[in-house]
## 1
Amino acid sequence: MSKKAAAKKPAKAAKAAKPAKSVAKASTTSSKSLLVENRVFKPDAGFVKKARINSMAQYKAMHVESLKNPDKFFGREAKELTWSKPFTKVLDWKCPNAKWFTGGKLNVSENCLDRHLNGPRKTKAALIWEGEPGEKRVYTYQQLHREVCRFANVLKRHKVKKGDRVIIYMPMIPEAAIAMLACTRIGAVHSVIFGGFSAESIKDRVLDSGASIIITADGGYRRGAVVPLKKNVDDALKAKDTPVKTVVVFKRTGQDIHIEEGRDVWWHRELEYVDAKCPAVALDSEADLFILYTSGSTGKPKGILHSTAGYLLHAQMTCKYVFDLRDDDVYWCTADIGWVTGHSYIVYGPLALGATCLMYEGAPNWPENDRFWKIIEEYAVTVFYTAPTAIRAFMKWGDEWLKKHDLSSLRLLGTVGEPINPEAWMWYHHKVGGGKCPIVDTWWQTETGGHMITPIPGAVPTKPGTATLPFFGVDVGIVDDLGNEVGTNEQGKLVIKKPWPSMLRGIWGDKKRYQETYWSDFKGWYFAGDGARRDKDGYIWIIGRIDDVLNVAGHRLGTAEVESALVSHPSVAEAAVVGRPDELKGQGVVCFVTVKEGIKTGRDLSEELKKHVRKVIGPVATPDEVRFAAALPKTRSGKIMRRLLKQIAAGETLKGDTTTLEDINVIAALSAASGED
Ligand code: WT7
């Protein structure tokens, strides 16, 4: 191509960033979805010019190579990690057990920190932090390295060894990332618990993981209030026979807390006893890295286990190709460190790549609705990654909050957590991205460790509402129950047909559940509960969970978990929990409850049950509505008919077969019942 032609091309591409055709309305009534989205947005020309991957042909060639010759593709990519001992084999796969990069040894904290200290990144900002009340801190790579080494020595002082589990229950402060990296430095396995989980949830996770130490803070700030983190830990440890010997407490909010002599120690005091030298331990590629609990379709959360080399590679690689992060980017992921997004895209991916990562402690609407935009302007954020539920909230709050701020530094936007509705996508594109920023809608899961289906922003044209095409190494199928590929625009089950480097390695302590949950619906393929369809261009549209898992504001919640919390209340006889569409949160939690003999139902009990669920699981699980009924609709064999309950919860007229229903009168009573009146 001549220089002239090359110069002309971007202008044309920029023009194409306007919708080509209009959109037909969605229908949810048929499995063959009628949603036809014709708006196509070519990658912005300015973006393409600098992008690492800048054409569809290049994306396709790399994708083909990654599937046909994974040894070569991933062998080459893995050379970008720093190894203490090189690996001898790329993949060893015996379904469902994958081993990646066997024979190799490396350390995650060394890859995230030490290796950046030999050049100009030493003095570059690794972490920029802003507290909710407004404090600011910046850590250069050198400073972060020093803090991680010091805290790793604190862990050693408390006899934490390779393979030991460490619970981290902290606010969104740099110390959370420091504690995680410190664990990886000595080969301890962290399990971060989101601050929105309750004492009982902590207790369950402590017992399941067998952790001997908890790292926490006195409290954290959220919407101006203090979240009593240490108090929750104290309550969790009231349980008999927990394995916890030590609780390290960071002083964040300064309120009075209980200190248990012989168990609790202050973070800042501990640092006085240690020095700043701590060698990184060389660990096997497959050494356990972390456990992260997530909801499944039973009442008991699963401890998703990730291992070292494959996970780190995928986190780094997606930051490189999907976020296209550069040394001069200021990258901000708004997730909490307690979710996998925070693990892969606040800590491990960006730091492995040597990027500058911003971290914010609090709520998006504190003190006012423009906090996020204020932060973007102040730090000149270039790459911004958030969730559809947040985008919908911003839309609701109104454009005037954005208009007050200069967002022109942004060059790339991302979303994750649930399907993004086209209206929210368009708003994000125009109002936040000024029409020039590609949007990467990234589909993935706690189990997958990193992005699986996502546009490559300089190469793949986007359409509002689709995560588009698979990432490298990801072999997607959309199949019927027998495993046959479904037709264009037909809904099927989303499966992954090949192992990928950052796949989960198991469920902590439960081999059988690992095999049964993910690998037994389709032999040799991974299935984790989503439905999807493919359009005529091969783009993948995620429909959402098709198992008994809800997605509430981007957070996963098992209906069985909420049900078991409800029936643990003395008034409740039986409970069935379903999701209903919610404009802001994606899904809301609706509980159908029958009570024990002689119990009075009504608003008081409904409020009490909501509180009870909050107490048992945590504020993340707060029900939106509790409905009382004399009975739940059941089949003759006694199975609760959730399909009907979902329709009732959504206020729809009942469709489909009710002939298996034991007592049709139950339905009429349920439709009328509400705990709110
Ligand atoms: C479930 C996984 C991945 C980190 C956050 C959530 C849904 C996630 C998308 C997306 C449509 C999405 C799926 C998935 N999901 N991203 N871009 N489009 N749906 O992780 O808690 O493990 O939840 O979130 O239903 O199965 P998670």
## 2
Amino acid sequence: MKKELRKAIIAGNWKMNKTPVKTKTLIAELIPLVKEVASQNSGSACEVVICVPFTSLATAVEAVYGSSIKVGAQNVHFEASGAFTGEISAPMLKEIGVEYVIIGHSERRQYFGETDETVNKRTKAALTAGLIPIVCVGELLWEREADITEEVVSRQIKLAFAGISSSDAAKVVIAYEPVWAIGTGKTATAEQAQDACKLIRDRLTALYGKSVADSITVQYGGSMNAVNAAELVAKEDVDGGLIGGASLKAEDFTEIIKAASDGQ
Ligand code: PEP
């Protein structure tokens, strides 16, 4: 069993939801619930991260102060500064207290031209600034149906990590998110999630060796909720989850945190 070698992380992806005022309200609901889960698990819940819209980041950093909840962004530019109107850089995020950043989410790949190359550049920029990247990979429905999930995910992993040293790779979190399961209510079975997360770990082993691969957190994401979370996170290679819809309701999100904390 290698599960104990790595941190289970439950990260909420709020997407384009919640104004700063609503952010404050949801965090105020979450803090005592997360504390209660920790108290039921000898003082520590799994790592809990909320990835909020850019306009809510400063509010969120202030609101989580004194709690164990970490704050993440949902995207980052790969340059540190310059003529990139409308973009936000990794040093900007770091300076306001952001700790995590989602990179290459399928919605960014589908709607905003994200490629494996830009995922790689953003991952490097995040690492350079001291942010923890949550790198998203996953196949489209037709790719799964054509039985090329393995090729697609292997390629995404190889390109995302191109030119990244093993000491930096060990800091990265990966989210396996089959695109057909995101926001659709259609969850991968626990076996499908395990198979893909194991495949990712095998690819990381080929790139960096077993001890680095065994230390990297590989989450599952795609319609994870209070009901199906326990079965998914119990799998050997599934180290928590990236949660969209269910992260917007404090009770549902807490149930998922509880499942990942119990399963540690
Ligand atoms: C996501 O946005 O990364 C996600 C997994 O969304 P949902 O949980 O709503 O499917």
